[in-house]
């Protein structure tokens, strides 16, 4: 392979059609550039330029050689930039229910930073479906059956419901008589769970909370029994803050979906986050009951 300095002189002279211009660009003398070209031609045993009184022209061989040299320099330059030059940090805004942001997204941020160190998430929490609005053009996470007007959706989780309680309540065989915890304004799933499990529901009213996160905290502190929405409660079970009270898990047919506007393309950073989230949550699409 010819020395790189010869090739640099050849590329600059060919692009500028002038040895003097090439010398100025490269910080060399015109004599040095001429010598590099002469040595390169001797090395290749081929004339690359036709010298004229008022400039130079490429020979057919030189013209054929030039795009290969330029492509090689571009590859070296792009690789150097990619590997060694600082990259601009990109911020991706994602809207999410507060329960999902707290219990599922936040624990994954160290992994995201490790996989994509130049991406930062800006997480905006949603408290009720009406807060999503219609004009949002970025990513958001929604709970439902996957049909969201004007949005394309990728499923992240599949919900399963199991009763959970703090360890000191978990041994009570008559746990349905304990206070039942639910979320204000949410679906009334306790009745469906008891019916599907073949258990007569208690007549007592449950404690209610304005978010699933606070209901979960209430359950961890022994306030009563939570109908745990999996996989939101899985970390609490792994940490032994909650224990399942029944092996029966009611699959609701719903889950969390990552959505984006229909008919539009995401920018590179948003698409990177979308693909990363799909890979990170793949294991939550078909979950087994906790025992």
UniProtKB/TrEMBL annotation:
Keywords, alphabetical: DNA-binding, Transcription, Transcription regulation
Domain (HTH lysR-type): residue spans on this chain: 2-59
InterPro entries referenced in this protein's UniProt entry, alphabetically: LysR-type_TF_proteobact-type, LysR_HTH_N, LysR_subst-bd, WH-like_DNA-bd_sf, WH_DNA-bd_sf
A Pfam family of this chain: LysR_substrate
GO molecular function, one term: DNA-binding transcription factor activity
One GO term (biological process): DNA-templated transcription
Keyword set includes Nucleus: no
Family the UniProt entry places it in: Belongs to the LysR transcriptional regulatory family.
UniProt name for this protein: LysR family transcriptional regulator
Species: Pseudaminobacter soli
